[in-house]
Amino acid sequence: DNGSSKKETLEGLEQLRSQWQNRFSQTDASFPQLHILSDNRPFNFSELNNSAVQFLTEHQNSLLPEFLVFLNNDTLWEEPSSLEQLVFFATLSPRIGAVGCTLLYKNSTVQHLFLAPGVKLAGAHPCKGISLNTSQSWYADPRPVAAITGALLLVSVEHFKRAKGFDTTLATSCQDLDLCLKLQELGLENWVLPNVFVRHFETSTRLKKNQAQEITYVSTKWVSKLAMNAYFPREISRWSERPALSWGENAYPWSAVLEVR
């Protein structure tokens, strides 16, 4: 809870605490506790989540978690087993880094299949806004990808710590892309489960004041991984959010676009 003031938010947090205690604490004392952390520092997504992970790993004693799930509060699970499927897949190989799934808009069009590095400004969502068609081969099997949105991202505690968590230079954007590229650098693969669906209403309560600086930082830090990535080959244009063959136009001119803005 980063400085929430709306009555419905505070009531919702208290309701969540009460429901958790009634459902689990009284039936199984060994079940992990629910901690609602209050941190009123100026908003920095990376710092807040790194602090939450530190708290979690220091206060769970013998019940240390194996996995972390970073999840936006504007998401809705389509099936009760969705999280279980993500966790199960992540246990199949020690080389699995981050794991994500298909995110849908409220109207059931696609919001996220995977995060494409170097497309437009730092990264983009290919096929964003297209109609969902589960008969397409894409949805049949898990897919290795370059990166995954932080709106729903599962990663092991071990790998998150090896990657040194989120980069705190990135307060409002690009933390997910940066983390996934760091996992790649460690020799890990990021995956999506296309046939697991979560609805993402993609609302926002934060102004991204420093987004231009953060895009510049990520684009400079990862220039080679954005232009050439084994999971998003150079033959695919970085100028088009919809997948298209490259005509040799090279990297997207992000610096010129930011100057125009």
Mean pLDDT: 88
How is the biggest beta sheet arranged? 5 strands, mixed
Cα(first) to Cα(last) distance is 32 Å
The tally of helices reads 8
Q: Which percent bin holds the helix content? A: 25-40%
Beta-strand portion reads: 15-25%
| Gross morphology | globular
* CATH homology superfamily: Spore Coat Polysaccharide Biosynthesis Protein SpsA, Chain A
Structural class: alpha+beta
CATH topology name, in short, is: Spore Coat Polysaccharide Biosynthesis Protein SpsA, Chain A
What top-tier CATH class fits best?
Alpha Beta
Low-confidence stretches: none
The tally of structural domains comes to 1
DSSP summary, beta strand count? 9
Order of helices and strands: HHEEHEEEEEEHHEHHH
Named at the architecture level, the CATH assignment is Alpha-Beta Complex
Query: In angstroms, what is the radius of gyration?
Result: 19 Å
Explain what this protein looks like in three dimensions.
By secondary structure, this protein is an alpha+beta fold. The chain has a single domain, classed as Alpha-Beta Complex (Spore Coat Polysaccharide Biosynthesis Protein SpsA, Chain A), CATH 3.90.550.10. The chain contains 8 helices and 9 strands. The strands form 3 sheets. Strands 2, 3, 4, 7 and 9 form a 5-stranded mixed β-sheet that branches. It has a two-stranded antiparallel ribbon with strand order 1-8. The chain is globular, with a radius of gyration of 19 Å. It starts with 6 loop residues before the first helix and ends with a helix. The mean pLDDT is 88.
